[in-house]
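Quick one: structure tokens for this chain, please?
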Amino acid sequence: MERKSSRLDGVYASILARRGTQGRLRRLTIPTPETVDFSSNSYLSLSRDQDIWSAYLDRLQQSPANQGFSLGSGGSRLLDGNSAAAEALECTAAAFHGAPAGLLFNSGFEANTGLFGCAPQPGDVVVYDELIHASVHDGIRLSRARGISFAHNCVRGKSRTSLDHVLSELTQGQDGHRLRAGEINVFVAVESVYSMDGDLAPLADIVECVEERLPNGNGYIVVDEAHATGWLGERGRGLVCHLGLEDRVWARVHTFGKAMGCAGAIVLCSPTTRQYLINYARSFIYTTAMGYPTLAGIQTAYEYLESGRVEPRLAHLRSLIKHTHRLLTSICTRHQPPPRDVVLYTKEGVPESPIIPLFTAHARSLAEYLQRRGFMVRPIVAPTVPAGTDRVRLCLHAGNTMEEVQGLCKAIDEWVAEKLSESGEPSEKPSKL
């Protein structure tokens, strides 16, 4: 029996149609196996590594029933879902990243909403980078704190939107005396690697700025290491460890669904903060805990990183980053396309991460062109990114080859030439890259 559509369905259909005419309609797709992946966040290509698969299956087979093996946990960790495996994994992750303690969450999104939703107390302030992940925004909305943004990666300078200026204004404002006295807390939220631009936070400068403006120790820095975990720093420990800032950053969020090829996340913090989150983080309290197969996968990935076997992959990934940048720079140097067509990078030098944005007003056109040639890339458009900053987001992986990068850049070269030809702009023919 066919169900009649409701009036609400009509409202939704109208809203979706309007978004479709704006070219912003989101759709689910399934990548075909033969396409070359330049899109996913699996930077180390670990999810399909045969050695890790074998180690993971061995761990599952060798786990006796008295260690709590089951397909699912059976409940939240505060009820029946806790296990020795979960607590052992928290100890493993905390030790690997040089933290006192850690608490597992089912995803990075839940880690951020749980942490920011309960950590700030009434009257506290969250100061965040304007490009911070949506999950932090949602966490702030759930909290009892006021949120204030600062310009992306702008720490000091004359800009009224720099972190330094925002903190200075706070200490001089209505509650300035309480801030200076340490009675009000300021949480400063940044990402170590920004997922859409691929640039790194100037974390050492951020730490120094916060400590200078809030000398009474009421400035608490939270670093989302989601896109750094597994590949950045020694054995993939992340930016905080790479810079030796473990004791000067209040909390870190590491996720396992990207370079580590698993699922889930952990908040690294003090033992007292861990206990507080257990009692007040709603996304921890009211959700079913991860089952043993998920925990075993994360533990296996950590053992792989700790063993040092990841180093050849990291070396290859760094080579791919440099090679890709050289090829893309060559394309733009030869064609000199107008800025609105393709802008490869906004900074001097080689990209800082495996994420390389190709800024273009024709992001969907470029993505579709590359997809037809067997390369999986995605257009990223407003509102996911600010209006006027549409781009195709390239993600490099340790599993990619130099030949695949060569083919991708050749296809980009051809697209640029065709686009310039259509617009009547002079352009060189694509050449052998």
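The two ends are 59 Å apart (CA to CA).
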